[in-house]
Amino acid sequence: MSKPDQPAAGARISIVERRLALAEVSVRRGKEAALAAAARNAFGAEPPEPGHALLQGAVTTVWIRPGGWLITEPQTTEGALASRLERALSGLAAIVDQSHGKACLRIAGSAAREMLAKGCRVDLHPRAFGPGRAAVTPVAHIHAVLVQIDAAPTFDVIAGSTLAESLYDWLAASAAEYGFRRIRSE
Amino acid sequence: MSETWRAPAGGRIDRSRTVSFSFDGRTYRGHPGDTLASALMANGQRLLGRSFKYHRPRGLYTAGPEEPNALVELRSGARREPNVPATMIELFDGLDARSQNRWPSLGLDIGAVNGLVARFLPAGFYYKTFMWPPTFWEKVYEPIIRRAAGLGRPAASPDPDHYEHMHAHCDVLVVGSGPAGLAATRAAGASGARAILADHDFELGGGLLAEPAHEAWRAAMLGALAAMPEVRLLPRTSVFGYYEGNVLGALERVSDHLPMPPAHAVRQRYWVIRAREVVLATGAYERLIAFPENDQPGVMLASAALTYARRFAVRPGSRAVLYANNDMAYATLAALREAGIGIAGVVDPRTTSPAAEAARRAGIDVLARAEVVGVTGARAVEGVRVRRADAPQPVTLDADLLCVSGGHNPAVQLASMTRARPTWDEALAAFVPGIPVQNERSAGAARGVFGIAAAAADGLRAGSEAAARAGFKAAAAFAVPEAGPGTETRVHPLWQVRAPGKAFVDLQHDATADDIRLAHWEGYAHVEHAKRYTTHAMATDQGKIGGLVGAAVLAEARGEAVEKVGLPTFRPYVHGITWGAIAGREVGRHFKHVRRTPLHPWHEQAGAVFLETGLWLRPLYYTKSAETGWEPILREARAVRERVGLCDVSTLGKIDVQGPDAAAFLDRLYTNTFSMLPVGRARYGLMLREDGIVLDDGTTSRIGPERFLMTTTTARAADVLEHMEKCHQTVWPELDVQFCSVTDHWAQMSVAGPKARAVLAGCVTGLDLANAAFPFMAVGEGAIGTAPVRLYRVSFSGELAYEVATPARFAGDVWSAILEAGKPHGIVPYGLEALGLLRIEKGHVAGPELNGQTTARDLGLEKMLKRRGDYIGRVLAERPGLNDPDRPRLVGIRALSGDFERRLRGGAHIVARAGATESLGWVTSVTRSVELDRWIGLAMVRGGAARAGERLVASYPLEGEEVEVEITSPHHVDPENARVKA
Questions:
Q1: Which of residues 770-789 of B touch A (CB under 8 A)?
Q2: Nearest CA in chain A to B745
Q3: Contact by Cβ (8 Å): B423, B402
């Protein structure tokens, strides 16, 4: 395995550890329409369809399972995101704070797709994937949520925080041949 | 040595540069563009290996991946790779290779004595000979066979290079880059489809590489492909398998043509390609004819001789005989003449043919209705013995090169793996791909369409069709080579020559036509049985050049047609691939991922010894320099019993359960009731599998009217979540409940010991910890410093204890604050060993008791089975067998003696007295006790609690140990549960 700290020169990939607030939203039984309406009312858009993410500035909502979404935003006050969602969606969904339970690594650069293809079997070609697309899929055998942010391309990989260091090790080794920069946190 | 066999001009080698390489310790020279095979041939090295069984001298037989003879060990030391065909090795400066399967040297090989006793080494020899006496197998026969078996030697130390996997998706995958493959790829690419072109060779072009006349077309095609952004060219890439769902596997030799991979580059890459449509342009393999001594160095396939002469500008001999049953092979004559090789004659079983007539016109002697019955020469061909139909006495033609062609087998391997049954082509006397089952089609020689022009036109058709099927419209056409005067492709079937001597059908495994007949004689008449009995077509070349010949010999023995006998089933791998590529990155410390708790950095700096449990790394104990053996464990456990300890229990599975039906859901999952649990209280719960066996246990807390926080054991966290998903999705979808894992969100630590309350009172704010306000099984929220915490008053150790949960990023601060507050009370961090010691003393069950075989009753937990209301596992738990009073049940055991040298062991049997062999049960968990100062444990024993007070023996025959024990309650410590409520 290449030494991750000595990547090839001329970085074609950057890996940023993002500090996010995250919350998992699961719709209550039979409340799908009411939840969509409440979300439109409170956040200006309905939750995204399967395979998609809603990118609203710094706030991202990702479909992660039937009736389930993961919402992320830059970290502010402890528990603020979950509380805001509780207020807006009271009685319509279960809200679970995952701010400490999930880690997000942002991968960007011209070789990002090729590097991810070493451990991710989803087709990330622009014809098949793109900004606003998402997948719940293993990345390097780790259960992850993969979101494409822009066409640079930039991807967010969200995985369990206790596996984050191990995931980073894998990403760094896989990125070494392209050259990469690690940014400890945004 | 010098390149005396190199033609003065021509070939695709770079004559302006010279590279130096070594074979068997001797230094040679070659050029970029050579393979190891062509460079050795240029240097006059004809003997390249010894055969597997008889150690016969062998030379190059082919020029491609189908090579059966010239297998070498490539590179040395940790990078040594055995059994690499020299024909597949791209020459590089400093290349180092050795011949295989010879001792002491290639020229003088002791094993060749096997050839003298060959009549005693027929097919099935091992099965017949090494049967008796049975006791000889392990000590005598197996070591002998092991020494004789195999060819090259693998590296003895870990491979220093890296390998990786790569997933690829495309609309059209084209396998093979000959005229058909190039045309197919361009047709697909021009339509806008995403296309991948893979070829095993380091140069793309396939058969075109030996056709200088078509070089311009090849270059134009490659230029056009390079300009297409959605076309990916993968040279040095062998597609080895075709799987369900149009998934194909391929091996890319990224750095094999370099002495050492560049920094950060892999040696090989394992591709998993998902293709909408596939074009198989894999060409055809020429096949041998089974005549005596057809393995002698100097005998080679006609197409190989042509390739060496044209592509590599090497003369494979000085005077050649062509032995062919088809007109296509006659093309070799011109190539040999161009290279300055004399033609001694052509041996052809047919009466005449257009190519034979043309050869005669060119002044070549064609012996019609003739066959080769052997060769002369001890270690290489010196003459070819020919028998004519009209002359009983063979004549010998003076030649050092015998080019053989028994026809061409379309490379149907990949197509067959899709379960498309190959069909017989009478004119070619070969199998061609069957009607497609998956989204694939073959093109060019791979389906029996021979000739550059015809194959290119066929590739254009196949590529366009594939693109159309993938949803793309055909675009601008391009020129394919014009068809010249046609060559007759009909083959006169000829498989073997009946004459004395060894006529090989499988060169790599030394299987002869006689071996096939013997297999048939002994009852192995099915082609799959004959294959296994003779090992024919089982070697690394998978019988590419002789497989059909062996089947034809078998067919003759059976008195049936070849197409009736068929070929053995083709399976991956078409070409040998390395274990390194299969393993990819998952080796060494990357073998599996590592899960670290949020407190991992603290444990590391505190000198923790870690244990891998599943993916987790957990602190086993914390060492102080002078401590040995059990000392740190006992020290940590004593601190908990006497004062207070702190343990990281973040690995516990944690599941957030919410919704109006959350309580009802838990009532059905657990054997006990949670709907009556008040908010702010925890309860121990037990879950069964559907079959009534215990699944898991843990404490679950009600943190709101419609919200619970469940905990599971570390090991079963994923199983329990999956169980819940299955129950909710398939059994009770009507329940309005939502749940998800929050294991990683919460760090959790146990503060245990008589001083636990005092310690927490010193750091927790916002929560009254007085016993009356916060009793046993209470749950409440507060803060430690700025960190929000949730406290659970639960105990695994049997002491007054609290579990403190905090969002993961606060873990370090909270842990340190508790240690700081605990300093005056003598707090000690403790690890997994002490945790286990304490729970065994207390008699709590864990993994060794929840082993997938035990029921609630077995574990003494029958009181947790509610009388009213249904739950998972209730019905099947009532089966008589699970309620047999004689089933082993949980008890405690204590060594009678306090002698720690007489240890208890998990897995020991409980027997009635010393020397008894009737097992009454088994020991599940053991530990040294700090409370009782002796070995204690838990055990599953027939009769269970009724045996309390009995003195039995824990017997461990593997170590010859017998330890007297007393049967007790599992609760060695505080059976009244007073401490936890103090």
A1: 788
A2: A101
A3: no
Instruction: Output the pTM of the full model.
Output: 0.93
CATH number among 2.40.30.110, 2.60.120.430, 1.20.120.80, 2.160.20.80, domain B885-977: 2.40.30.110
Quick check: A29 and B598 CB within 8 A? no
The second-level CATH assignment, the architecture, of B601-651+745-838 is 2-Layer Sandwich (3.30)
Query: Left if phi > 0, otherwise alpha if psi is -120 to 50, otherwise beta: which for A68?
Result: beta
Class of domain B653-741 as given by CATH = alpha beta
- Tell which B residues from 165 to 224 touch A, by Cβ distance under 8 Å: 165-169, 194
What CATH number belongs to B163-284+410-469? 3.50.50.60
DSSP β-bridge partners for residue B286: B408
Q: Note whether B601-651+745-838 and B885-977 share their fold.
A: no
Domains, chain A, with CATH or none = 13-17+101-183 (3.30.1360.120), 20-97 (3.30.70.1520)
Residues 144-163 of B with CB under 8 A from A: 162
Provide the pairing of β-strand B787-792 with B779-784.
antiparallel
pLDDT tens-digit readout, B216-243: 999 999 999 999 999 999 999 999 999 9
Interhelix angle A80-88/A32-43, nearest 10 degrees: 120
Looking at domain B285-408+490-565, its CATH class is alpha beta
Chain B residue numbers with beta carbons less than 8 Å from the beta carbon of A118 are: 164-167, 585
Please report residues of A whose CB lies closer than 8 A to that of B266.
177
Indicate yes or no: CB of A125 within 8 angstroms of CB of B194. Answer: yes
Measured between CA atoms, how close is B421 to chain A, in angstroms?
30
Please state, in angstroms and rounded to a whole number, the distance separating the CA atoms of residues A119 and B792: 40
CATH 3.30.450.20 fits B1-156, yes or no: no
CB contact under 8 A, B263 and A2: yes
User: pLDDT tens digits for A117-143?
Assistant: 999 999 999 999 999 999 999 999 999
- Measured CA to CA, the distance from residue B716 to residue B738 in angstroms comes to 20
The alpha-carbon gap from B830 to the nearest alpha carbon of chain A, in Å, equals 21
Whether the CA torsion B446, B447, B451, B453 is positive or negative: it is negative
Q: What is the pLDDT of residues B5-53, one digit of tens each?
A: 999 999 999 999 999 999 999 999 999 999 999 999 999 999 998 888 8
Counted across chains A and B, CB pairs separated by less than 8 A come out at 127
Chain A residues touching B734 at Cβ < 8 A = 29
- B window 648-667, beta carbon within 8 A of A: 650, 656, 658-660
Cβ neighbours, 10 Å, residue B761: 14
Beta strands A53-56 and B764-765 are unpaired
Successive 10-residue mean pLDDT values, chain B, 982 residues: 88 97 96 98 94 90 96 93 95 95 72 65 64 67 60 87 97 98 98 98 98 96 98 98 98 94 94 98 98 97 98 98 97 96 98 96 97 95 96 94 98 96 96 97 98 96 97 88 87 95 95 96 96 93 95 97 95 93 91 96 97 96 88 97 98 98 98 98 98 97 98 96 97 97 98 98 98 98 98 98 98 98 98 98 97 96 95 97 95 96 96 96 98 97 96 96 97 96 94
Q: Nearest by CB to B738, which of A94, A127, A128? A: A94
- Give the nearest chain A residue to B617 (CA atoms): A162
Q: At what angle do helices B527-534 and B547-558 cross, to 10 degrees?
A: 120
A40 phi, psi to nearest 5 deg: -60, -40
Of B162, B169, B659, the CB nearest to A125: B169
Domains of chain B, by residue range, sit at: 1-156, 163-284+410-469, 285-408+490-565, 601-651+745-838, 653-741, 885-977
B604 touches chain A (CB under 8 A): no
Q: How many helices (H) and strands (E) does chain B have?
A: 25, 48
